[in-house]
Amino acid sequence: ATMPPLLSAIANSGRHGVLVKSAVVMERLGEVDAVALDKTGTLTEGTPRVTDVRLLAGAGLEEDELLTLAAAAEHPSEHPLARAVVDAARERCLDLPVAEDFGSTPGVGVTATVDGRKIAVGAPARLLDGVADPGSARASVVAGELADGGRTAVLVTVDGTPAGLLGIADRLRGDAAATVSSLATLTATAPVLLTGDNLRAAARLAAEVGIEDVRAGLLPQDKVGAVKALEGAGRKVMVVGDGVNDAPALAAAHTGVAMGRAGSDLALETADAVIVRDELATVPAVISLSRRARKLVV
Ligand code: ADP
Ligand code: MG
User: Fold this and answer.
1) pLDDT over threshold 80, residue 298
2) Residues 33, 38, 64, 222: which is the catalytic one?
3) Which of 83, 154, 198, when mutated, tests ligand 1's pocket best, judged by the most ligand atoms within 8 Å of its CB?
4) Where along the sequence do coiled-coil regions lie (predicted)?
5) Statement to judge: residues 207 and 235 lie in one domain
């Protein structure tokens, strides 16, 4: 027997490096007419590196102490930024104490107790919200400087006091700009960027790939809100993301696609399709495969 068109399209997608979870999804991929892309791990390679360590006077820590505390707190996290912090500590051969009471908030950061001290590592704007420490103003200034340099700024607080910031840089994927432009052509709409990172860092990166519509500083539910707004305007939205913070948007979207290599377990489970080959260019390829299969079906 010859294979039904949607099933051969699934097999073809597999050869392109995309795992499409069902024939229904294979069919829906071709309906997509708007695409929302996540930044960290999706447009970027997702292997960020710590490039800057900036100390704040208040806590009186040395660079290695700051990195040790931050890396110990980040160790249980699967976020790409967490891996960057742990790698930076390893490169300096620092011994990491075991963190207790680990907690993480998607789109914000992590908290843990390390050597009896309460550590928080995460988005400066979120951690500084409502903190009246004298170091807060200085921390915001340093965060702004790092963002202007194209870095993602991560704040470390120790017992509630801003202790230092880490500047983290990630490379754009080699196929990001080409993919954005093929998606724009295929769907006749420019893709939008949805990110939890700050606007300055996000806008800089968006400009490099040709994205104009940038929504930054988003919490997971804000990503859902952005998707629902587009769908309310009659769009069939594909969300492409990798993080725990993307999972609700992947679920809310017409079609959710997860980046497989660095993707969080929750994103991979929630998504309708998973990019296994770690190439963004496979996204427009499966949309085209779906459209061809649909023509054969109807
Ligand atoms: P994106 O939407 O671009 O993938 P996220 O929503 O995952 O980014 O993260 C948004 C912001 O929250 C990050 O830029 C960072 O400031 C902060 N953040 C989230 N998780 C962590 C973490 N484990 N360590 C440090 N910062 C974090
Ligand atoms: Mg991400």
Assistant:
1) no
2) 38
3) 154
4) none
5) yes
